[in-house]
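Protein 1 of 2
SEQ + STRUCT:
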Amino acid sequence: MFRAKAVSARGDDPPEPPAHGGKPFPPYPLGPPRGGILPRTPGPRVDSEAVRVLIAEDDEGLGEVLARGLREQGYVVDLVPDGETAASYLRFYQYEVAVLDWRMPKLSGLDLVRRLRRGGTGNGSTPVLMLTARDTPADRIAGLDAGADDYLVKPFDFGELLARLRALQRRPPVSHSPRIKIGEVEFDPAAREVEVRGERPALTGTELGILEILMRRCPGVADRRSIAQHVWDNEADAFGSNTIDVHLARLRSKLAGAGVRIETVRGVGYRITPV
């Protein structure tokens, strides 16, 4: 099942990124499955951790196949099961492209893109690729007029999906989320890069993920479960040992002299504060 947590009732709390563990994905190549992906056509691989994509798809099998396929191509993927959760993620995180299914529970893809373009959630200029089984000209017109940048009808070839994502990425860049700065540590949410006095510390992907959630929650506390869900594909990998503590110790060492302190809040979690 989808493991994305329900969005908090508070409008100022960022949602916890979904964990990506769970059942194994179906093997490739695929015949036309229930969700409608045809056998994929090869395309160039994206070689950049900065390309972050949101997939909002209520069909669990199709969503997992899409997420796995995009990760294999080098994308960073967040997968959510409904429109309201997608709206919350778009509010708090920067995405290069959002892939939205037309029919979703709680909030349809069509209503979500309308809200997005009105400035009601997230960065209103985020490129949107709409996925749907609706294939009449009237449906395409409705989707594009609502604010979608592109429209892909199921079933579709995975290679075509990749090509359309690349086309959307080639559009001129627009405004990005503001950088987060604590002490001398500056985090760029869009590029997922960290600088300390103009220099980039040599952080691992795990250390960067931990630092990201600590900085986003500042001055609040990030509990261990939230860190595990944000950083590890399978949150269980972070429990049952001192895995999180080991990575935090290394992160503290690499940020020594950066004007920040990572504190342990006993029985709760961790927080980062300026010195």
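Protein 2 of 2
SEQ + STRUCT:
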Amino acid sequence: MTDQAAQRVDTPSRQADVPAPFSVPQLSQAQLAEFRRDGFLLVDGLSTPEEIVSLRALYDRLFSERRGWDKGDLFDMIGRDDTAEGKGLAIPQLLWPSRYEPALPQTQLAASARSIAVQLLGPQIESILEHAIMKPPKGAATPWHQDDSFSHKGSRIVESISIWMPLQDVTVESGCMCYIRGSNLGPLYPHRSPNNDPRIHGLELVSPPDLTHCVAVPMRAGSAVIHHSRTIHGAGVNSGDQPRRAYVLGYGVKTGKRRLLRRDYSWNLEKQTAREDREIQSLSPLKRTVRKIKRFMHGQKF
């Protein structure tokens, strides 16, 4: 894959929470075509070294204080976390970290990511995902999967992307992202829970992908790799001696009700995770009851 540095345009501040002035990446027509063809795209210059250092300290604090554990926002991506109490997780993941650190959406990194999403999907985008992943030293590999596999019945998201932003340089040895080039143009393949254990939150392809067109994407801190929700991707083991930190923002475009997803995937219906149990228990009695009714109506196991 060609590592083209993004062109840059000066953008005046239009919101009180965005510093002014600063530059955001402007994608070229060649880059837009590359993303549509390959299903992923590397872009440089989303943030400054100074901001990355500040974000890294904030990020480490979120995980060291185990923010979001009781609400089910902090969990193990590829392992059971019913007895860990937020400690010793194989790959800790935190959903919606800005709930616990409101400064995150105010950063240049977040503003650059949203600008890229608008360029790829149009101005009608909606924020559909925010998560932080901390892969510890000697941490496990992230299994091959497609983000579309997590969709649920009633979803109106017709197209979505994830913008994966490391807070330190990432190499093949430290577990950089890997993609199957062109898989965004193919089908959604069958998935399952890792180790066929429905108590694990994550998903993996039932059959390993053909690695003929596999591309590893090492990158510098402050850069990002964007991938389509249909693109097959994973990440290797972090064989280094430092954590591999990644901040991920997802954006999507909704469609009309006639095109919504009309069924749940079997691999999601079988899920029985401690993460979701903690989330339900953190709700008010009324919301807890409504949530359980919805799970029953979707045919989810208890």
